[in-house]
Structure formats: C-alpha cells, structure tokens
Amino acid sequence: MKARCTNENTAGAKNYIGRGISYDPSWNDFEAFLADMGDRPAGKTLDRRDNDLGYSKANCRWATPLEQRHNRRAR
Q: What's the pTM?
C-alpha cells in the first residue's frame, strides 16, 4: 500500500500515484493501521471498496481474491 502510493519506481505506480491515490497518514504508524483494520484474516488482502478513493478505514476492507477481482476498475 505505502509503496504503491509513494514509490514512483514501483510497478503500476501510474495507477496509484498518477491517479492521486494515497493512504491515511496515521497509517504511517503500524499500530494505528492495526487499530483501524485489525489483523489480516487468512486468505484475504487489503482492498479499497471504491477504487477512485485512497486507503483509509472508511474505504478499506479485508477481501478474498474473488472479491477483489469483482472490484476492479475498468482501465
């Protein structure tokens, strides 16, 4: 998440940095991220509900690969 939103050398950076996707600055502290999102459930990864918005407690969830495939934006 952090690399996608801040490192221009990351694969796909244009899809994050180039679109203005960022993350909640409080999440620079892992404890704040953990308090908001909890432990990662087995088989799930971090997903943004609305792909046009950044990473935040209000816009993120733990999702299965199938849920994430259904939540992709049209390129």
A: 0.89
